[in-house]
Amino acid sequence: MRLTLTGIGPAEGFPAKVCACAACSRARRAGEIREPARLESSDGWAIGVDGAISGNASGGGTSSRNLSDGAGFAGVDFAEVGAGVVVVQTPVMGTVVWAPQVGEPDDVVVEALNRQLGGQAPRAIYLGPVPNAAADDGEMPSVGCARTLARLRAAGVIGPGTRCVLLGFGHRETHPARLAACLPVWGAELGALGQTLDLESDGAAASSAAAVARVGATAGRVLVLGGSGSGKSAFAEQMLSAAPEVVYLATGPKPTAAEDVSSLPGPDDEQSPTEHPEDDEWNARVRKHQDRRPAWWSTLETIDVVQPLAEDGRAILLDSVGTWLSGVLDRCGAWDDRPGWREQLDADVEELLQAWTGRSAPLVAVSDEVGWSIVPATESGRLFRDQLGRLNAKLADASEDVFVVVAGRLLRTDP
């Protein structure tokens, strides 16, 4: 049995009719047309974007129906386990999950899906966003799909041999370059018109899915650069959205509520160089990042990043290298030109590089690109700019991929 994608777009198709947005305009200019998502079988049945089944029924003749009774076609059983989630079970060749408009299902649907699969990972899952999905902060619909992949992996629904295919994106998926960069890290692929899944070829399908999964498991080290407000942190978070376990390694000042007096340092307490609880604007920045991250991520706030980079096998998002360097310069006494600060800084940087180059688990790090503006007026500003520029260059040399985010747009640098 061979399954073929004969449509990969959202229910309304793409480009959207009578829409003048940039994404639709680019698609029209390129002659790109995506019909609503549809999966057709070589056995004569097909399933549409809305879950409707059509084809040759097992008793003969052509018919179509919605999944209200779980009835099958040609020996194939279809079960709807939640709104927009259909499990297609073949007698011998394996199981496929069809969810082109589910987005981020609730826990009830995930549990029902797990029960329907009976502990057996599907051969493939076709996943897409809810119709007209768009977050208030401009987050692309694909990020919600990535979070669903993470939850399904954590729940044991997706196995190492499951082929994860994303589809159903329309004009709200505004940055295709970002999506293309994230797919290998997500262990997923973008659905393409005519793309096939051969359920009778166990070896080929399993090896293809395993290859995609291995890319996600060994994504290596990624450095994301950008200016203030460029969207670099959002992109870095997007890259790891499909990982079931992520440590957010925060090196910046810790947020502290103004009314939480008990947490403020007393006169005899030693305050960390990254703690500035009186800065309400910084606290708001940090909390915005916290609210954007998935609830299952762990957070570690420290400038002592070497140990987690060297020893923690979970995916790590380090944000940011610039605030790490600022804290280290503070600790070394660079601002006061304390004797020996350069030697101490070199030692700390070398330790960071060793942990960085020795790491095998996924690592995505964010750093500021501060060298494109005017020369800072202060000596400390020039010191920080120069040291961060040198550190970025060293980390880039030790990274498999380096991306630059400019005004929300992504540039991939050559090695």
Describe the structure in your own words.
The protein has 415 residues and is α/β, with parallel strands linked by helices. It has two domains: 2-217, Metallo-beta-lactamase, Chain A (4-Layer Sandwich); 221-258 and 272-412, Rossmann fold (3-Layer(aba) Sandwich), CATH 3.40.50. It has eleven helices and 19 strands. It has helices at 22-30, 107-117, 141-154, 176-186, 202-217, 232-239, 280-292, 306-311, 321-332, 341-357, 379-397; strands spanning 2-7, 38-41, 45-48, 53-56, 62-65, 77-82, 85-89, 95-99, 124-127, 163-166, 189-190, 196-198, 221-226, 246-250, 298-301, 315-319, 363-368, 401-406, 409-412. The strands form three sheets. It has a seven-stranded mixed beta sheet, sandwiched between helices. A six-stranded antiparallel beta sheet has the order 5-4-3-2-1-12. The radius of gyration is 25 Å and the shape is elongated.
Largest sheet: 7 strands, mixed
Query: H/E order of the elements?
Result: EHEEEEEEEHEHEHEEHEHEHEHEHHEHEE
Strand portion:
15-25%
DSSP helical segment count:
11
What best-fitting shape do the alpha-carbon axes yield? elongated
Q: How large, in whole angstroms, is the Cα Rg?
A: 25 Å
CATH class of the largest domain: Alpha Beta
Secondary structure tally: strands: 19
Number of domains: 2
CATH topology name of the largest domain: Metallo-beta-lactamase, Chain A
The first-to-last residue Cα distance is 43 Å
CATH hierarchy: architecture of the largest domain: 4-Layer Sandwich
Strand order of the largest sheet: 15-14-16-17-13-18-19
Unreliable stretches, pLDDT < 50, 5 or more residues?
57-70, 207-218, 256-277
Give the helix level as a range of percent: 25-40%
Q: How confident overall, as mean pLDDT?
A: 85
What structural category arises from helix and sheet content? alpha/beta
